[in-house]
Amino acid sequence: MASPRERAEALRERIRAADHAYYVLDRPVLSDAEYDRLWRNADVELDPVKRAALFIKMNDLVIQKAVVIPVTWRNVLHAAANNLAGIDLNSWDSIFGRIAYWYRTS
Q: For residues 89 and 77, what is the distance between their CA atoms, to the nearest angstrom?
């Protein structure tokens, strides 16, 4: 039986090989048939509600099968006038995505 160190190194090598095949050779070697099926269905689905449901299922598959660590870097200073409303300041996304909802108060 391989030691934990040997198993970890074997896993690292498998990840490196899969990374190389995907990004350099454009020949993925790892796949998930259920995820691929959902992706193909979402690619041709015209109903936005049904399409969103497919992407939610895809997200659930990723969450159930992998460790996902979101990493974000927001090196942006946000400022607003005292009489500007409709701005949702948060640390996750850009405030400009909701710029259509901004308005001036008196």
A: 11
